[in-house]
Specification:
Largest sheet of chain B: none
Strand order of the largest sheet of chain A: 1-2-5-4-3-12
Oligomer: heterodimer
CATH class of chain B: Mainly Alpha
Number of strands of chain A: 12
Radius of gyration of chain B: 15 Å
Number of domains of chain B: 1
Distance between the termini of chain A: 58 Å
Largest sheet of chain A: 6 strands, antiparallel, barrel
CATH topology of chain B: Arp2/3 complex 21 kDa subunit ARPC3
Strand content of chain A: 15-25%
Shape of chain A: globular
Number of helices of chain B: 6
Order of helices and strands of chain B: HHHHHH
Radius of gyration of chain A: 25 Å
Structural class of chain B: mainly alpha
Shape of chain B: globular
Helix content of chain B: 55-70%
CATH architecture of the domain at 119-283 and 291-322 in chain A: Beta Barrel
CATH superfamily of the domain at 119-283 and 291-322 in chain A: Rod shape-determining protein MreC, domain 2
Distance between the termini of chain B: 15 Å
Largest interface: A-B, 62 and 62 residues
CATH topology of the domain at 119-283 and 291-322 in chain A: Thrombin, subunit H
Order of helices and strands of chain A: HHHEEEEEEEEEEEEHHH
Structural class of chain A: alpha+beta
CATH class of the domain at 119-283 and 291-322 in chain A: Mainly Beta
Chain lengths: ~325, ~170
Amino acid sequence: MPGLFEGFIARHRRGVTLTVLVLVSFGFLLVSNRAVVIKPKEVGLSFVGFFQKGFTGFFRWFGDTAGSIRQLNAAREELEAAQARLQDMDRVTREIVELRRQNAMLRQQLDFAQTLTPDRIAAEVIARDSDNLFSTITINKGWRQGVRTGMPVVAYQADMEGLVGKVLSVGPGASEVLPLYDPQCMVSARLDTTRDEGLVRGEGRDRGTVLLQYVKKTAKNAIQYGDLVVTSGLGGLYPKGINLGRVREIKALAYETSLEIEVEPIINFDRLENVFLIDAEPAPVLDTPDASGDPGAQQGSPTGAKPAVPPTQNKPAQAPAQGAGQ
Amino acid sequence: MNKDVRTTVFTIIALAVCILLQSTILNRIAIRGVRPDLALIVLVFVSMRRGSMVGQVSGFAAGLFEDLMNVSPLGFHSLMRTVIGYLYGIFAGNVFIDPFLMPMVLTVIATILKGLIAGIISAIFGIASSGFITFTGRLWIEVAYNGVLAPFLFALLGLFRVFKQADKEGD
């Protein structure tokens, strides 16, 4: 019997090796991917769904191409209207600049207290995902430099601060950042002008935009193209007021109760070299009972922006599958 | 050292170097954020030259290395590259590889195959990624990129004696 077994292995060495390697890989995937729930029906559905998505995407591409020609004509007319509006906007911008100046002056007069000044850790982008399938960014700072999982990451481009994403996993001297455009990245946001709240979600590297969802349809007329979208601060993970992007397209689907707003990120991720990690640990600057007694109200994050335990080498693989939103 | 073992070790090193290059300096030549997959081209070359055993073992090891340094779940790339290494190794010694056309064709097919396998693994295991899981434009950019680079990389790798064509397939 052992001779038969050995003979079989010798005859089918390549096949046996392939089977072993595939099984080992499957084993790794099962262990490392926390989101996996192997139910035959769901696996079948996912498998068929993959091909269905492929077919739908292929035919939609043809439809979109035809639609693009129609849209081009409409775009021409919109351009003329937009130019007229632009002149009007110039006037409004001048007024805003004046109002800001007045606001700053009044604040100074009222001795407005700056209660929270989060520390920042400067870091450099050293690598990106080696494959085009995933989209993390690796930076050169880790837990030795005080980086923790969940920290917001920002950068400056064209004199503007914009949100890059958040820290996904931390090593001793390097960390991985989940960028804003990743489908697993979710940020509570609001429109800077109308103050309407929503949730920003990445649409993948392919589109290069992010989607602002759950904004009430009633706000449609008030929202303008180019309006700034900022973090709302809800959830506690991202500080309030960080720029996310500008409104590029507003979709009001008949079957949806809310708007879908396409937002162009402030940050050009192709040019990203240096970033800053925001350390929003509660600064002990106020002695009032409220500030010291309930830090969670401002800072507590359900996703672990402030882990109670020391930072660990959280295998990044698990994060995308389990959702990385706030 | 057995020649296959030596070739496998060299291939794993070459693949690891390619993966490191892809995550760092190749970002500078990315088109819409898409970089060429040099590791895939090397794997195709070696598998076509040295057979399934070398192809699948080195593909598995390099894939595991890639999984360890990336956000992908452990086993994702190792499974993908094992299967590709095995499939291409089947044809080792049976296909005439000219200097230009065949490297392109083989690499283009391998890249599409990679997208397909990645999609299937992601669908089964519920892995979310922002890449070309649903065969979006990014896949086709990588297909073109890999196809263009393949003849040059094949020519370069052909200079190394360690990758010399096996007399007989694989084993």
